């Protein structure tokens, strides 16, 4: 198998097999958290049509082989051997014609759910400015498998019984659904992601606020959450200060009887977690205070 043939294999399918999924996606391209470095804003672009990648943070890009060389820190020959073994396990992939047969992304198989205590995950939450006791009260440590490789992440339950998964290198889910938590309250708080929800709780220093809560887990889940959100007398929206967040807020204003857009309070930050990180330094003593010895 020559380099030209190997480079026809879809980069997005290779990344999916490594448990790496796009943070922003459309039919033509996807933006990922870079697999080559640590970042919080997706700046790693994969062009699905040309099957090329470009890391805007590094100013570098290339083919699938180039990517594997960078990810695995190996020479071209070793990268090709790894890819050939990977492709051999994908019998439905075809190299004939201009358009390869699309692949389904490997499923995320949850293997174990436990109390949140892994040091790497606690460090990740601290970097995001999240209070660890608050995180433990709302999240779990989820161990999962993708294509025979094992991973772990901070897990947040959604209404489909699945998990929203986050760690330094991965943002994904086992099923697409919002998360709603409700009691006998007339007010609902709406967040785009669970990190924003945890940021709110950290800022308020209140692990159990006297409000109902809707965490969209993605603005694409808005329609699923609207019946719950719109049933409240008062709604406070803490969505992102970007085009998608503003559009979702505008849609909520149409269906909610009384909606207050809270994003004005954390501009020019993109979201509530950015605001939290911008105003509060991570405390080194937090981990030792929260972790069991």
Structure at a glance:
This protein has 293 residues and is α+β, with helices and mostly antiparallel strands. It has helices spanning 3-6, 11-17, 64-72, 76-88, 119-127, 132-138, 194-204, 222-230, 243-255, 272-279, 285-290, and strands at residues 24-25, 29-32, 44-47, 52-55, 60-62, 109-114, 140-146, 149-157, 163-167, 170-173, 179-181, 187-191, 212-215, 234-238, 259-261.
Task: Tell me about this structure.
It comes from Alistipes communis. Residues 270-293 are annotated as: Disordered. Keywords: Metal-binding, Zinc, Zinc-finger. Residues 270-287 have a biased composition (Basic and acidic residues). InterPro entries: DNA_primase_Znf_CHC2, DnaG_primase, TOPRIM_DnaG/twinkle, Znf_CHC2. There is one protein chain. By secondary structure, this protein is an alpha+beta fold. The protein has two domains: 3-88, Zinc finger, CHC2-typedomain (DNA Primase, Chain A), CATH 3.90.580; 109-287, 3-Layer(aba) Sandwich (Dna Topoisomerase Vi A Subunit, Chain: A, domain 2), CATH 3.40.1360. Helix content is 33%, strand content 23%. The protein has helices at residues 3-6, 11-17, 64-72, 76-88, 119-127, 132-138, 194-204, 222-230, 243-255, 272-279, 285-290, and strands at residues 24-25, 29-32, 44-47, 52-55, 60-62, 109-114, 140-146, 149-157, 163-167, 170-173, 179-181, 187-191, 212-215, 234-238, 259-261. The strands form three sheets. It has a five-stranded antiparallel sheet, covered by helices on one side. It has a five-stranded antiparallel sheet with strand order 6-7-8-9-10. Helix 3 (64-72) crosses helix 4. The longest helix is centred in the first third of the chain and has 13 residues, at 76-88. Residues 91-104 and 281-293 have low confidence and may be disordered.
């Amino acid at each position: 198998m020559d380099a030209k043939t190997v480079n026809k294999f879809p980069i997005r399918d290779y990344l999916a097999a490594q448990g790496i999924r796009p943070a922003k996606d459309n039919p033509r391209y996807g933006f990922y958290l870079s697999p080559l470095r640590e970042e919080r804003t997706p700046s790693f672009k994969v062009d699905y049509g040309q099957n090329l990648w470009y890391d805007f943070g590094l100013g570098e890009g290339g083919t699938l082989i180039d990517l594997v060389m960078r990810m695995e820190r190996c020479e071209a020959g070793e990268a090709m051997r790894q890819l050939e073994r990977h492709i051999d396990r994908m019998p439905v992939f075809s190299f004939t014609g201009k358009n390869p047969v699309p692949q389904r992304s490997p499923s995320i198989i949850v293997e174990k759910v436990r109390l949140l205590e892994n040091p790497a995950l606690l460090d990740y939450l601290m970097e995001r400015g999240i209070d660890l006791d608050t995180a433990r009260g709302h999240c779990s440590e989820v161990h999962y498998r993708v294509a025979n490789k094992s991973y772990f992440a901070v897990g947040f339950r959604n209404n489909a019984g699945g998990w929203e998964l986050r760690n330094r290198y991965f943002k994904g889910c086992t099923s697409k659904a919002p998360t709603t938590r409700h009691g006998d309250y007339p007010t609902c708080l709406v967040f785009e992601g669970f990190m924003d929800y945890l940021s709110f709780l950290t800022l308020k220093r209140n692990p159990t606020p006297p409000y109902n809560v809707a965490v969209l887990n993605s603005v694409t889940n808005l329609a699923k959450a609207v019946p719950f959100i719109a049933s409240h007398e008062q709604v406070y929206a803490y969505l992102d200060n970007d085009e998608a967040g503003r559009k979702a807020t505008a849609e909520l204003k149409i269906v909610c009887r009384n909606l207050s857009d809270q994003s004005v309070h954390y501009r020019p930050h993109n979201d509530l977690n950015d605001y939290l990180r911008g105003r509060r330094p991570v405390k080194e003593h937090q981990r030792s205070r929260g972790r069991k010895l």
